[in-house]
Design brief:
By secondary structure, the protein is of the alpha+beta class. 29% of the residues lie in helices and 22% in strands. The protein has a six-stranded mixed β-sheet. Strands 14, 16, 17, 18 and 19 form a five-stranded antiparallel β-sheet that branches. Strands 6-7-5-15 form a four-stranded mixed β-sheet. Strand 1, helix 1 and strand 2 form a beta-alpha-beta unit. Helix 1 packs parallel to helix 8, helix 2 packs across helix 8 and helix 10 crosses helix 12. It is globular, with a radius of gyration of 23 Å. The termini are far apart.
Length: 480
Amino acid sequence: MQAVVIGGGVVGSLIARELSRFRIKVVLVEKSEDIGQGVTKANSAILHGGYDDPPGTLRARFCAPGNLMFDKLSEELKFPVKRTGSIVVAKDRNELPKLEELLQNGINNGVKDLRIVGKNELRELEPHISDEFNYALFCGTAGITEPWMVAIASAMNVAGNGGEVITGEEVIGGKINEGRVTEVFLSSGRKIEADLVINAAGLFYEKVASAFNVNVPPVHLRKGEYILLDKKASELVNMIIFPLPTAAGKGKLVVPTVDGGVLLGPTSVELPEFSPEDVSTTDSGLTSVRKSGEYLIPGIDNPKWFIKSFAGLRPETVQKDFYIKRAEELANFITVGAMRSPGLTAAPAIAEFVVSTIVPETGIDLVRRDDFVPCLEERVKIKELPAGKVSEMIDENPAYGRIVCQCNEVSEAEIVQAIRDGARTIDGIKFRTRAGFGRCQGGFCSWNIAKILARELKKDLSEVRQNSEESWIVDGKVRQ
């Protein structure tokens, strides 16, 4: 038997990994040039506690359990998780009932380590918080991670267990026979046999479903704008800081990042039409992000700390809940879509649910294999190693001594390993190694990374791309 999972984001990659535990060949198909380059790469990277999801929703059902699965997942797949904790702040007793409502909601949703704190403890938790705030809801299970590495590591684990990972290929339809998909068609002309198809195509879940004549709730896109701050800003921030939520959402946050930076944002604006290419930022949006950050942490709106701004898109339905369902039209087609917040946090629990509960509805009886290998070998990051150990490694392989990314101290050897792991673009290197994530945002290292890619992939430099096929770097030589 063979399963085709469409979409290499966090959700699709984790579903593919979960399927790999069973005696079924798994094929993961991603239309981008690398795994985790859609919704997965441009979000707040938060592991939410699960206290603000309405009871009875799929969001509430999967958020808290998914959160608790990340420690084991991180240990197995070697991606970072930091349990920073989070606070939702309130100014006075008039706002306290909202914190009490969130507390009770969290208890109902099974959230652990959740309590309301007063001003003194709030100052101990977050010394630089604005003096306006006197109360907060503290959640000890909240944390941060690198979503793209969750997806990349999961896909690597799929391949390591005998599955196939296809990138740069779009699913355009399939062959239907007696109410079941029997083949999946790719944009290259390749046809893949399929006993099971899982549509986890992120922003494009409706488009993919439509290609198989399956009806799903229409997708609505919501854009969030962010500002990334220098590591100096991290001196002001210990944990994830939320304002009091409103009907519009969780609000604009202050969020530490795994590698020591700070994110401000996001905005939350529903796009009037389906425009998945619209990741533009606006002056008004970024101004509101700055003001909100300063409102929470006075002094954090420091232009000297600004590194970059960017925007990400989130898919949702009018019900504002996840959509997880076997198609009525096709017995072996499952859609897992509308992965709005807290989709990242819920993803491991969703993957387990889809494989254990929804897949059997297709008539497929999965048999667990006894040779599944859940763990990856940890990749070297010389920045995190003692100098003595690095010296020994340089003696064995001089490429560890050639630093390509000065900001994050990434060596040539680490970049070569990332290429062997599947990176084919400059962004593929960036998200695997953090080369280009630093203060200069690749201004100094991108050229050398491009040359290493060309050398290792035996390509001409003009064939190296930033991310997509259209994102060329150079188109030829100026002189011979």
